[in-house]
Design brief:
The chain is α/β, with parallel strands linked by helices. The protein has a single domain, classed as Alpha/Beta hydrolase fold, catalytic domain (Rossmann fold), CATH 3.40.50.1820. It contains eleven helices and nine strands. A nine-stranded mixed sheet has the order 1-9-8-7-6-4-5-3-2, with helices on both faces. A hairpin with a 4-residue loop joins strand 2 and strand 3. It is globular, with a radius of gyration of 19 Å. The protein starts with 10 loop residues before the first strand and ends in an 18-residue tail after the last helix. The relative contact order is 0.18.
């Protein structure tokens, strides 16, 4: 099996607790078979987002406050963990977050608990974006909603170099894509990017050749390939001209520092390794952390998986370190006044 030779040395976190092993066992015998069944259907089936509605009952981190934010074409949430101030309270830093779910499922409810823990660890408020998803809108519109979220933060008084963009799974795709889009708009460079188990390349070729192609406890390989086909058909139906540029193929030399988390057996490790390699080769600092035997976005199980709490702590440390970097090192000359929404990038 192919294995990418990295330009930077990954940091490995050894050990898998009983709780994390139980989580992996559960996913392998529930979610993975269901995704395998979906992948073998001869037509595109988009089941209702039941998990998002059920997740309304999930508790958040103790003391968390949140309120709805209406963006032009999506509803988002402004969330502050216990003891975390916003710009009006003297905290000049914030996080823009995108939930995962393969651009098909999940939302603000499923990820509110994870986002609240990240807010607490990073000591920064978070705009959690409820971006539009397939099958109603193509991925380019998901990116557009993310750009709207960044604009909203600018309008609240946050400077571009004080905004970290983060996301998990499909949200990792959006984190890099939105960072690229706002830089191209001339708004300035964000503080950094955090990507948890990110999907960064819709071409399944690299994942199929990787040693993890059939080791992932969450995603069978044919489900990953079908998602790629579904996204391309969605683009075609919406009349999108040209192939969408995935994060691994974007210009990277002017991107901000990045942190990437991935489980050691995830099929998406192929994307994580490729992105880390290309970032470092372009001269961009990238911390690639590989977590032994951890499942896809294991961070979401922080209430009972110790490795998840440790990983969120690592993210918090990274985000806080961005806030202390020399501005001259991480941010070029900036335009801090957002341009009209009509000037947004519709395709990346």
């Amino acid at each position: 099996m192919a294995h990418l030779s990295l330009a930077a040395e990954p940091q490995y976190f050894r050990g898998a607790s009983l709780q994390s092993r139980a989580l992996g066992f559960g996913l392998r015998h529930t979610v993975r078979p269901l995704l395998g069944l979906w992948a073998h259907l001869p037509f595109d089936l988009f089941p209702p987002n039941v998990v998002e509605h059920a997740a309304k009952l999930l508790p958040v981190h103790e003391g968390t406050m949140w309120r709805s934010v209406d963006l032009p074409t999506s509803t988002s949430e402004w969330l502050q963990a216990k003891g975390v101030a916003d710009v009006n309270g003297g905290n000049e830093h914030a996080i823009l977050y995108f939930h995962g779910g393969a651009f098909l499922t999940c939302g603000l409810n499923t990820h509110r608990r994870l986002v609240s823990r990240i807010s607490f660890a990073a000591k920064q408020p978070v705009l959690n974006v409820g971006y539009r998803q397939m099958p109603y809108e193509p991925i380019t519109e998901s990116v557009a909603d993310g750009v709207d979220g960044f604009r909203w933060l600018l309008e609240q008084g946050y400077r571009p170099e004080n905004i970290t963009i983060a996301g998990d799974s499909a949200g990792g795709y959006l984190a890099f894509s939105v960072a690229r889009a706002v830089i191209d708009e001339g708004w300035g460079r964000p503080a950094g990017v955090v990507a948890i188990s990110p999907l960064l390349d819709f071409d399944p070729t690299g994942k199929l050749a990787h040693r993890n192609a059939h080791r992932c406890q969450t995603f069978p390989m044919h489900a990953v390939a079908k998602l790629s086909d579904v996204s391309l058909r969605m683009d075609t139906r919406r009349g999108i001209v040209g192939r969408r540029v995935d994060p691994v193929n974007m210009p990277l030399a002017d991107m901000p520092p990045a942190m990437i988390h991935v489980g050691s057996r995830e099929v998406l490790m192929a994307d994580a390794e490729l992105m880390a390699n290309r970032l470092v080769s372009a001269g961009v600092p990238c911390d690639l952390q590989v977590w032994e035997k951890q499942v896809h976005v294991f961070h979401a199980a922080a209430s009972w998986v110790p490795e998840a709490r440790l990983a969120i702590g690592e993210i918090g440390t990274f985000v806080r370190s961005l806030a202390t970097r020399d501005v001259a090192e991480t941010a070029p000359t900036m335009v801090t006044t957002p341009v009209p929404r009509s000037a947004r990038v519709a395709q990346v």
